[in-house]
Specification:
This protein is an alpha/beta fold. 31% of the residues lie in helices and 20% in strands. Strands 1-8-7-6-5-4-3-2 form an eight-stranded parallel beta sheet.
């Protein structure tokens, strides 16, 4: 069964409490934390996540697009994150940081940028709960899906099956009603969508349509 993690990066920040109510039938709420260093944009930090936590029963899917994420794992866990994802590109000791996330009682995810090869996961694969493939270059919402990422999704699915591991594949970037069925067939388990949900007239209805297309 496909899972959905709407990204609040595309929501109306002047009315976030109402915005997250529109996607209450999702499975996660995706929280893109950007520092202006690893990616060319700044979004929000733990203060916003803490403020939102009382107003949603969804699991918080916190995606740390920041340098030195190991310094902030405890903070993001304490403000209500259920899943914490770090980028392999900025973590020197990936095995250690994955353990750090799990020690805080959170699910651990590792994200890969479009040009990052899958082999960077070789020696930590058995410790990861989720792998987040960026299907656009991170930093901004509303970008188009990079077609070559279909091939990367299929290869990752094969790698997970060959390893006989229970790891979810999550993708972020350019997901919409036109490509979601093909992405589901390629092996995606969790879909992050921002503009494709929050920029529509009825986000709840759009989410329901996406679910229908992945059945």
């Amino acid at each position: 069964m496909s899972l959905f993690s709407p990204s609040i990066l595309a929501a109306d920040f002047s009315n976030l409490r109402e915005e997250i109510k529109k996607v209450e039938k999702a499975d996660f709420l995706h929280l893109d934390v950007m520092d202006g260093r690893f990616v060319p944009n700044i979004s929000f930090g733990p203060g916003l996540i803490k403020a939102l936590r009382p107003y949603s029963s969804l699991k918080f899917d916190t995606h740390l697009m920041i340098v030195e994420p190991e310094k902030y794992i405890t903070t993001f866990a304490e403000v209500g994150s259920d899943l914490i994802t770090v980028h392999a590109e900025v973590v020197t000791h990936l095995d250690r940081v994955i353990s750090q996330i799990k020690d805080k009682g959170c699910k651990a995810g590792v994200a890969l940028n479009p040009s990052t090869p899958l082999n960077v996961l070789e020696y930590v694969l058995d410790k990861i709960d989720y792998i987040l493939l960026m299907t656009v270059n991170p930093g901004y919402g509303g970008q188009s899906f990079i077609p070559l990422m279909f091939q990367k999704i299929v290869k990752l699915k094969e790698l997970i099956q060959e390893s006989n591991l229970d790891i979810k594949i999550e993708i972020d970037g350019g997901v919409n009603l036109d490509n979601i069925n093909e992405l589901s067939n390629a092996g995606v388990d969790i879909f992050v969508a921002g503009s494709a949900i929050f920029k529509t007239d009825n986000p709840a209805d759009t989410l329901a349509k996406m679910r229908e297309k992945t059945k």
